[in-house]
Write a structure and sequence with these properties.
Layout: E1 4-11, H1 42-53, E2 57-61, H2 62-71, H3 80-87, E3 89-93, E4 105-107, H4 112-121, E5 127-130, H5 133-141, E6 147-153, E7 173-180, E8 186-192
Parallel strand pairs: 1-5, 1-6, 2-3, 2-5, 3-4
Antiparallel strand pairs: 6-8, 7-8
Helix pairs in contact: 1-3
Length: 208
């Protein structure tokens, strides 16, 4: 079965809304767009290039598709991230789009969770989800994510769309890699690791 990996920029307090620019997503009157941009450096771009280089396919929500389709085709020919984004197969989950024009893009039809389930059972390598906050909520709520690649930024936003919102399925995670960047960004990868384990702590339990 193909691995489905979610990668997203997230603030220290769990907000993932509009990291890249002021007008990226103003839903709910959000006024903090662009909070990630000051922390992007060459090392960060290198890590993202290596990550996207692994992708065999992208799975995108409508808003992220619109942003990517308007920007990545403008990338220079020698931009490794742009070359990958433009060339890789892309699957778009949307209730409002009728067609998709970005090269190598396919619009998913019918129930999105069933469509993603079929993609995971098909032939191929890693499927990556970038951005796509609403889509991520659906995938997490239906237990379809195998790995989380989180880029945690040293900022507190206080309001906005959260990565793990209501409907998240309780599950255990295993940290399989982490890198701290000089800008304060912490890049961590978590794999699914069964169910949540519970216990107790305190002097009387010996776990203190």
């Amino acid at each position: 079965m193909r691995k489905l990996m979610v990668t997203t920029f997230v603030s220290l307090d769990g907000v993932m809304q509009a990291p890249g620019g002021g007008d990226e997503d103003r839903d709910g009157g959000f006024e903090h767009g662009g909070w990630a941009a000051p922390h992007i450096d060459e090392r960060f771009i290198q890590l993202m290039a290596a990550l996207t280089g692994r992708a065999d396919a992208l799975l995108l929500g409508r808003r992220t598709y619109d942003i990517f389709a308007a920007t990545w085709p403008l990338a220079e020919a020698d931009d490794p991230i742009g070359a990958k984004m433009n060339g890789v197969r892309k699957y778009v989950a949307s209730r409002t789009l009728d067609t998709v024009s970005w090269q190598n893009s396919t619009l998913l039809t019918g129930d999105v969770t069933e469509a993603v389930g079929r993609l995971k059972q098909g032939v191929g390598g890693e499927i990556q989800v970038h951005g796509s906050g609403e889509l991520i909520q659906t995938l997490v709520g239906h237990d379809l994510v195998d790995e989380f690649h989180l880029l945690v930024f040293p900022v507190l936003i206080g309001s906005g769309k959260r990565l793990f919102a209501e409907g998240t399925v309780p599950s255990g995670l295993k940290l399989v890699g982490t890198t701290a960047l000089s800008t304060g960004v912490l890049v961590s990868t978590y794999e699914r690791d069964g169910k949540v384990e519970y216990g107790a702590m305190g002097p009387e339990t010996g776990n203190w």
